[in-house]
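pipeline: protein-struct stage 2 | run 1193 | Two-component response regulator
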Amino acid sequence: MTKKKILIIEDESVIALNLKEVLIDLGYEPCGIAPSRYKTLALLEKGIKPDLILMDIYLKGTVTGIELAKELKNIIPDIPVIFLTANSEISTIKQATSCYAYGYLIKPVKERELQANIELALQKSSLDVKTKEELKSMENVAKILEHTLEESGNEKSTLITLKYGYVFCIETKILYLKEEMVNLTVKERDLVALLCQQKGSYVSREQIEHSIWVNEPAGEAAFRSLMFRVRNKLHKDLIVNRNNIGYKIARNPSSSRDS
């Protein structure tokens, strides 16, 4: 099994070397030690590709670990960072969380605590990367589908690009995902169409009931059943609601095909 490579960014040489030995004992591969921003960038330029970074917050020089972590987010965006510091003040922790750190350890670091944080960070980072790739793939498919439908010659169709790779055709009331139609009942289609037509605004429960159950009474059980069925068929965050305001559908901000 390939050992996970860990880059140590720490300006205290004794602490850095101790971390290196601990990481080796835990079965990881320390792939470099850097005391500053300059040394860190130099290692990356040489081709060092870590799976995780242990970052001291207070580094020598004008650039702090937090600032360096934000810079590295643009260079190696998918590499998780765990911060190390002797400072446990809440203000420092809040600064660290602002750059999406995957962990925060107070020095002196305990071996088992270090290992637990590393494993959790690696696992969460892997899931985050997978989710991001899936969303990107779904959005690309949505763009291809939109173009395909346009090329079919149905100029009356109004396509609305939603989040998570969904595309909804107002004209046909068909919802697509990954070039496949989502199987919806008539009322479920009516609900999605109503939410799409609101251009990102919330729709109250009363408006939904009046629009979908035009000539028939709609009790709370029927409304909840409809909403439950639709949400179970779609991404869990596609339809969102706010108490006492209503419901809306998550649209892709880049979509410009609204009518």
